[in-house]
C-alpha cells in the first residue's frame, strides 16, 4: 500500500542513501568489468586496447574496495540494478557493432569509455561527500583511491583522443 511505503520512506536516512548508492556502484563496476575486455578486443589502436586492459585490472581492485566498504558497514556485498550504467554500456555496444571496421571506431569507443568514467566520477564523488558527512573516514579513503583512478583514466582517454585517435577518425592523420 502506498501509505505504508510512504511511512517507511520517511524513516530512511543518509546511511540508507549511502548503502543504496554503494549497491548501485557495485553493480556498475561489475558490469564494467565484463564490458572492458569486449571494448579492448574491439579497438583497432593498440594504445586504446592497452588503456582498456589497464583499466580492467584497476576495476578488479575497485570491486574489491567496494566489498571492503560493505564489510566495514557490516552489510552483504550486493548490487542493485543501475539502469544508468546499463544504458551507457549499451551505447558502447552499439558503437562496437555499428562502427566495426570503420576508421572512426576507436574515437567512438574512447568517447563511450569516457561516458562510463564520468558516470563513475559523479557517483564516487557523491558517496565520498556522504561518507564524509557520516564521519566514515576509512570509507572515504577507500572510495577516494578509486575516484583518483577514474579521473586518471578519464584524462588518459582524453589524451589518447587528442594524440591521434580523433584526427584519424577525421582522416587528418594516417592510421
Ligand atoms: Fe570503476
How does this structure look, described?
By secondary structure, the protein is mainly alpha-helical. It is built from 6 helices and no strands. It has one domain: Up-down Bundle (Ferritin). The longest helix is centred in the last third of the chain and has 33 residues. The structure holds fe (ii) ion (FE2).
In short:
By secondary structure, the chain is mostly helical.
Helix-strand layout with pairing:
Layout: H1 2-10, H2 14-42, H3 46-73, H4 83-98, H5 105-133, H6 137-169
Structure characteristics:
175 residues, mainly alpha, Ferritin, 6 helices, 0% strand, binds fe (ii) ion
Average per-residue pLDDT, rounded, comes to 93
**CATH level-3 fold name:** Ferritin
Question: What global shape is seen?
Answer: elongated
What is the number of helices? Answer: 6
The total strand number stands at 0
Instruction: Tell me the span between the first and last alpha carbons.
Output: 61 Å
Taking all Cα atoms into account, the compactness measure Rg is 18 Å
CATH class: Mainly Alpha
List unreliable stretches of 5+ residues. Answer: none
Reported CATH architecture: Up-down Bundle
Biggest sheet descriptor: none
Amino acid at each position: 500500500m502506498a501509505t505504508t511505503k510512504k511511512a517507511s520512506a520517511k524513516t530512511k536516512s543518509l546511511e540508507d542513501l549511502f548503502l543504496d548508492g554503494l549497491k548501485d556502484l557495485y553493480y556498475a563496476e561489475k558490469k564494467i568489468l565484463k564490458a572492458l575486455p569486449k571494448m579492448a578486443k574491439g579497438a583497432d589502436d593498440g594504445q586504446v586496447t592497452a588503456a582498456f586492459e589497464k583499466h580492467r585490472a584497476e576495476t578488479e581492485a575497485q570491486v574489491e574496495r567496494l566489498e571492503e566498504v560493505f564489510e566495514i558497514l557490516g552489510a552483504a556485498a550486493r548490487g542493485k540494478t543501475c539502469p544508468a550504467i546499463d544504458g551507457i554500456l549499451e551505447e558502447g555496444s552499439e558503437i562496437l557493432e555499428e562502427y566495426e571496421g570503420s576508421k572512426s571506431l576507436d574515437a567512438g569507443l574512447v568517447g563511450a569509455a569516457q561516458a562510463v568514467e564520468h558516470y563513475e566520477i559523479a557517483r564516487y564523488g557523491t558517496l565520498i561527500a556522504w561518507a564524509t558527512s557520516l564521519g566514515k573516514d576509512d570509507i572515504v579513503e577507500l572510495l577516494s583511491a578509486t575516484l583518483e583512478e577514474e579521473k586518471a583514466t578519464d584524462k588518459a582517454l582524453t589524451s589518447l583522443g587528442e594524440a591521434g585517435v580523433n584526427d584519424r577518425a577525421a582522416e587528418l592523420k594516417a592510421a
